[in-house]
Amino acid sequence: MFIQIEYPSSVPLSDLEVSYKRQNKIIEYIKFLHTANSGVILENIETGNTDLPIIKAGSVCFFCETLFYTESDIVLVDENTNEGMRFIGMLYNINNKTITPQVDGIRQGEFKEHRGKAYFYDNGIIKMYLDFSMYYNDGKYYSKKYIKSEQA
């Protein structure tokens, strides 16, 4: 699960050193966002590996104008046993301000050009899709690749 990063503005001005350290950490996260998949590190995506990808600890996600990070590896679960394409959706929980990654067989939503990602909105549910796709067949994942959001 991805956890929301607390911004320096929530730190009292009386402790400037803590505020500066937190601000520097946020700048590090923002720099990391410019990597493939906007800061989300995927493992098991190399050619020949047919396992479901894992989201690595230290991954960062920018979602709804807020930064999120994960301190531990996230093992994805695919509950769909039908053959076909798979996408990784990042489901935002408004109540506890966390993001839970999910494997979806259908990439719902529409591409938001100003955000550079595909988003899905429905009755308080907000989901963003990573620019990554794979093909599932007989318990294995093939054709793992990064894609442009407009192509999905």
Q: How would you describe the overall organization of this protein?
A:
- With 152 residues, the chain is mostly beta strands.
- It has a single domain (2-151), classed as Triple-stranded beta-helix (Sandwich).
- The chain is built from one helix and twelve strands.
- Strands 1, 4, 5, 7, 8, 9, 10, 11 and 12 form a nine-stranded antiparallel sheet that branches. Strands 2-3-6 form a three-stranded antiparallel sheet, with no helix packed on it.
- The protein is globular and about 60 Å long.
Keywords:
152 residues; 11% helix; 41% strand; nine-stranded antiparallel sheet; mainly beta; 12 strands
CATH architecture: Sandwich
Overall average residue pLDDT: 82
Helix content: 10-25%
Question: In one word, what is the shape?
Answer: globular
Number of strands: 12
What class would the helix/strand composition place it in?
mainly beta
Order of helices and strands: EHEEEEEEEEEEE
Major sheet description: 9 strands, antiparallel
**Alpha carbon gyration radius:** 17 Å
Low-confidence stretches: none
The CATH C-level class name: Mainly Beta
Q: How many distinct folded domains?
A: 1
Number of helices: 1
Distance between the first and last residues' Cα = 25 Å
What would a concise description of this structure say?
The chain is mainly β and 152 residues long. 11% of the residues lie in helices and 41% in strands.
